[in-house]
Design goal:
The protein is an all-alpha fold. The protein is 69% helix and 0% strand.
């Protein structure tokens, strides 16, 4: 199911991109680094790392939140396995529907693909480096949350491409991404700190690609 969805998203970018013959990165988008764009992911990553790494914070933030979310003994309903891709899938779908984005198809495919690669690198790298145990025990790849990272990466791309003209799209993307993070905790798959860091790394992955874009020849 996941592979099929990713292939669909990939093709929705590639087919129009092949037909797009105009030069890339000729848009008027401001690719420079702004303090506000750095502050949000930095705070999220710092908060998640501190809670994970400092035992006092772990015991007084991670553990109580996990106990509270699991106190009712609910069954898992892991819709976030699918919804993590919703913001990312919305990027080409909106463009196919005629909604104006900030970049052409070819640039958008390059930016999204690059962000996905960065996100995957952050996710796998830190999972192997930190080796935080999952809340349910026995698995040591909890930090950061990959689902949350994917969702927030897509939400940040939505914001950058459509948010200026359509603020509701940006709000919706971030609302879905936040829901994905909450569901990872609710389903006992991640600690709250994992979700905070995942959100930060997801935003950072997209932001880094937009900052680097003018210096890369796609």
């Amino acid at each position: 199911m996941k592979q099929g969805l990713l292939i669909t998203i990939f093709l929705s970018f590639v087919i129009p991109s092949l037909a797009q013959r105009s030069d890339t990165l000729t848009c008027s988008y401001d690719h420079s680094i702004h303090f506000a764009d750095v502050l949000t992911p930095s705070l999220l990553i710092t908060a998640g790392s501190a809670i994970t790494g400092i035992d006092y914070l772990d015991r007084h933030i991670n553990v109580p939140i996990q106990q509270w979310t699991q106190s009712d003994g609910h069954n898992r309903f892991e819709i976030e396995n699918y919804f993590q891709y919703a913001p990312l899938a919305a990027v080409p779908m909106l463009k196919l529907c005629g909604v104006e984005s900030r970049h052409n198809w070819r640039d958008l495919a390059s930016l999204t693909g690059g962000a996905a690669i960065l996100s995957f690198g952050f996710s796998q790298g830190f999972k192997h480096l930190i080796q935080e145990e999952r809340p349910y025990g026995g698995v040591f790849n909890s930090f950061p949350s990959g689902h949350t990272m994917t969702a927030f990466m897509g939400a940040e791309i939505l914001r950058r491409e459509y948010g200026q003209n359509y603020p509701a799209i940006a709000v919706a993307g971030y609302a879905v991404a936040t829901g994905v993070g909450c569901m990872r905790v609710y389903n006992n798959r991640h600690w709250a700190a994992d979700v905070l860091a995942g959100a930060g790394f997801g935003i950072l992955s997209a932001s880094l690609m937009y900052w680097l874009a003018p210096y890369l020849r796609f």
